[in-house]
Amino acid sequence: MDNKEAIIQATMTLIEEKGEHLEEITVRDICKNAGVGLGLVNYHFGSKEKLIEMCVERIINGIVERFQNMREEAKALSSFEKLEYLGNMTLDFLFEHSAVSRISVLTDMQTPKANDNTHRTYAAYLPLVAACRPDWDETTVKRKTFCLITIMQQTFLRYETISKMLDIDLSQRDNRRAFHTQILHDVLEV
């Protein structure tokens, strides 16, 4: 393994260990765990923050790939149930890994890329939305899928405000799932 990949792997391990306390990760810890000199983080990545963003993207990419593979696991479910299941998995991940998720969502919003995590999530949802509403044209399916992903991101990023506004505690899994199901009905018009 080269130095750059060793730094990435060490950082990803520290992200998983620190959980919601990413601010505790230091360049010194990263380099010690990677077995490299202190200057290599800045040399390869420019800053600790850019390194963490890149590692978060890699972590989330793995999760999105698992979401895409979930379709096989849920073959017996209806299209709506599959979409509901995927949405619940997505929201649960966002809330259970809020520090990593916040970095991922905000990075995608600030510096969108062609194949970022938001786009990959959109791509995973698109066929499910189309299957739920085969009567919609392609443009409508794309627009509604975009709306659904945006609502989920906002539900996560602004859950305290939305919880107060709608008088529902979205930090609670059951409330979040009920809210998500209602959003699906609203967006899909079913």
TrEMBL record:
InterPro entries attached to this UniProt entry: Homeodomain-like_sf, HTH-type_Tx_Regulator, HTH_TetR
Pfam families: TetR_N (PF00440)
Keywords, in A-Z order: DNA-binding
Residues annotated to bind DNA: 26-45
Record-annotated HTH tetR-type domain positions: 1-63
Protein name: TetR/AcrR family transcriptional regulator
